[in-house]
C-alpha cells in the first residue's frame, strides 16, 4: 500500500557523490547540445519564473526541466537575496526535486546549493575550453564567494595557468580565498589590476552595475560572465558587450534576464550548445564573452548524476 516516500539527499551526501565538478562534464555537454537542438534534442525547459520578494530584496527562481536523453524530470527552487544582514546565511539557497518521469512520483529531494555551485562552474569550464585563446596563462576571478571557489577548483583542475589572480569588493574575503585554496593566488587591489593581461576572466559577483570595463581587457581574452542575472543588473560595460563575440547558454533566457545583454543591445552570436553541436564556430582568436544565466536542464542532469550514484551505494 502507498508509494515509497522520497529520499532526502543533503549537502554532505551531494558533495560526497559529486566531489569534483568535472564529473558532470559529459552530461552537461550533452545537455547543452540537446537544449540547442530544439525539439529534436528532447529538452523541455521554459525560461525560469523569477518571483521578486521586494520587501526583503530577494528572488525565488522556479526552474523545471525534462531531458528525454536522460529520461530525467526535475525542478529546482532557488532563492537569491541581495544585501543579507546575516552574513552566515548564503545569498543563494537551492533545492532540487527529482521525479519519476514515467508516473510523476517524487523520488528525491536534493540539496541544490552544491549542485548549483558545481554545475555552473563546469559549464563555464566547457565554455572556456572552447573559447579561450590558444596560449592562456593568466586566470582572473572577480568575486570571492561560493562561485569563485567552485570556478577556481574546476579551472585549476582542467587548465594549466601560470598565474591566478583575484579581486573582490571586500579585500579581506579575497585574502581569505587566497589562503584557503590549494595553489598560489595573487590578491589584487583593483579589478583593473586583476584583469590587465588576463587571458581568461570569470565574473562571479552580485554587482548590479559594471565591474569590468572593455578598456582593461586584453584582445582575444575569454570572459565567463556568471553574475548579473536580472534584466537591470550588470557586470560588464556596454563596450565590452558590443565589441566581443557573445555566446549564451540560452538565447531566450539572455533576452529575458540578462541586463548585460538587454541593456547593451549586444548581438548574440551563438548558444554554447550550438558550438558543441558544431553548427556554430567557437572563434577562440577573438575576444569572447560567455554570458551564463544557468539552465534548469543543467540541474536535471546533475541531480540525476547524484541520485544514481547515491542509489548505487544504497
Ligand atoms: N549563471 C549561473 O548559472 C549562476 C549564476 N550565479 C550568480 O553568480 C554570482 C555569484 O554567486 P555566489 O558566489 O553564489 O554569491 P556569493 O554571495 O557567495 O558571493 C557574491 C560575491 O559578489 C560580491 N559582490 C556583491 N555585491 C557586489 C557589488 N555591488 N560589486 C562587486 N562585487 C559585489 C561579493 O563581494 P563582498 O565579499 O564584498 O560582499 C562576493 O564576492 C551571483 O550573481 C549569482 O546570482 C549563481 C548561481 C548560478
Ligand atoms: O541558475 C541558477 O541557479 C541561478 N542563476 C542566477 C541565480 C541562480
Task: Explain how this protein is built.
- The protein has 314 residues and is of the alpha/beta class.
- The protein has two domains: 7-115 and 297-312, ornithine cyclodeaminase, domain 1, CATH 3.30.1780.10; 130-295, 3-Layer(aba) Sandwich (Rossmann fold).
- Helix content is 34%, strand content 24%.
- It has eleven helices and 15 strands.
- The chain has helices at residues 11-17, 25-36, 113-131, 146-158, 171-180, 191-195, 238-243, 251-257, 259-264, 272-277, 296-312; strands at residues 7-9, 43-44, 49-53, 58-67, 72-81, 92-99, 106-111, 138-142, 163-167, 186-187, 200-203, 222-225, 245-248, 268-271, 288-291.
- Helix 4 (146-158) links the parallel strand 8 (138-142) and strand 9.
- Helix 2 (25-36) packs antiparallel against helix 11 (296-312), helix 3 packs across helix 4 and helix 3 crosses helix 11.
- It is globular, with a radius of gyration of 19 Å.
- NADPH dihydro-nicotinamide-adenine-dinucleotide phosphate is lined by residues 80, 91-92, 116, 120, 143-148, 168-170, 173, 204-207, 211, 226-227, 229, 292-294.
